[in-house]
Amino acid sequence: MRSKPEYKKMLKMKVFIALFCFIASILCKAQTPEKEYLVQFGELITIKSSILKETRDIWVYLPPNYHDTYHQPARYPVLYILDGDIHFHSLSGLVQILGAGLNGTYVIPEMIVIAIPNTNRTRDLAPTILDNNDSSTNSYSYKNKKGLNFLKFIRDELIPKVDSSYRTANYRTFIGQSLGGLTVINALQTIPETFNAYVAIEPSLWWDDKVLLKRVKDYFNRSDLKGKTFFLAQANTLNKKDSVNLHFESIKEMLTILETRNRSNLKWKYRFYESDNHASVALAGEYDALRFIFEKFHASLDNIFGPKNLEAHYIRLSEELKTNIAPPERVVQRFGQVALSNQKYDLAQEYFQMNIQYYPNSASAFGDMGNLMHTKGLNTKALEYYKNALSFDLDNKYLADKIKSLKKE
Which family does it belong to (predicted)? Predict the structure, then answer.
């Protein structure tokens, strides 16, 4: 126990620090204009839900290229994440690094991230809730109607709102951790048509005497889930003193069901993270899940040669994921630019023509072909392509300067 002088000294120090921080914040506000934020990350939309009978905030991340006018406006797969206020920034950053082509990555598609923050976490995410009229302390004796409403809200209100507000593609991924992971498995069982891929990280399958495990015990034997993907992540939550760990063993039971009672054609993967705990596993699990879901997305110059092979690659991927995935414009452009830099003009022309075919309203596609023609000394054709390009991006100074320069030659 501290003496009174020590306590008073510590109290004065705390008051001083609090006062210092308060004054510093005022000075910073006075000296820094409001618009001097370094980064504006994402946007906020609100939905007045008639199903939930409340207004919900939704956080939205759009890919860096979403508002690009030089390339043809694209449609993007959508990733829905529960506990959105916790995972939004880290997951969006991960999606950006893997999908936006930074340093030529393109290992997953560019994606929109929809983060759903909590208002009442247990009410929304639990498949059952405690019956207060039951004297038994372990009774969760009825379905959580509000939890079912939450899934209905996502399916019937949130997804239509997102699809009508943004350029979305017909591919959705649903991610949740802990109680959110339980919700993901609940959705896979009750509304499997809503999402294409399901990611459950450290799901709380122990909930209500393993009620969800009991429900899915025969589900994978009697359901056809061809074209669906499921990723199950488990952290090392075992303690040395544990003789029984209900949470850990429940996830293992889910794994056993997938291994031994599964004729659903579901594409699935389980991964155990020995060095992570219940909280720290989130980002590692999200990374591995996205790499698994889109494991065949990446097109490499090392193993794919020529536009026909590149096109065939995405046709096969579309068949596997049960959705239409065209060769991404920036990927095709990169292949063409590499060919152009190596003076393989015929090959470059095939790639650039491929982009014009798939993206006929792209200034970039016509601009690349103009660059090729200019390099080959075919200035009349180059001028024609540049003019076509400028018609799709009227304020593009680069294209306007190219046209002006060619007219002088």
Answer: Belongs to the esterase D family.
Number of domains in the chain: 2
Phi, psi of 10 (to 5 degrees): -65, -40
Distances (CA, A) of 45 to 59, 61, 114, 117, 166: 7, 11, 10, 12, 12
Please report, rounded to a whole number, the percentage of residues in the chain having pLDDT higher than 90. Answer: 77
Domain boundary among 293, 324, 354: 293
Q: What is the mean pLDDT of residues 55-66?
A: 96
Residue 11 counted as domain residue: no
Asked if residue 386 lies in contact with residue 370, where contact means CB atoms within 8 angstroms, the answer is yes
Structural domain including 75 reads 43-132+141-293
Question: Could you give the CA distance from residue 189 to residue 184 in angstroms, rounded to a whole number?
Answer: 9
Please compute the mean of the pLDDT values over residues 180-198 and round it to a whole number.
97
**How far apart, in whole angstroms, are the C-alpha atoms of residue 125 and residue 44?**
22
pLDDT in tens, 355-408: 999 999 999 999 999 999 999 999 999 999 999 999 999 999 999 999 999 988
* Count of C-beta atoms within a 10 Å radius of residue 3: 8
CATH of residue 203: 3.40.50.1820
Distance (Å, rounded) from C-alpha 262 to C-alpha 224?
Answer: 10
Mark whether 351 and 272 lie in a shared domain: no
> Are 153 and 237 in a shared domain?
yes
Residue 28 tokens read as 């910073």
Same domain flag for 102 and 160: yes
Q: List the one residue out of 62, 73, 66 whose CA is nearest residue 392.
A: 73
Residues 6+ apart with CB under 8 A from 256: none
How high is the pLDDT of residue 3? Answer: 52
Q: Are residues 276 and 315 in the same domain?
A: no
Q: Is the pLDDT of residue 214 over 50?
A: yes
Q: How far apart are CA 350 and CA 282, in angstroms?
A: 42
Last residue of a domain, one of 234, 259, 293: 293
DSSP letter (8 states) at residue 328: P
- Quote the distance between the C-alpha of residue 400 and its chain's center: 37
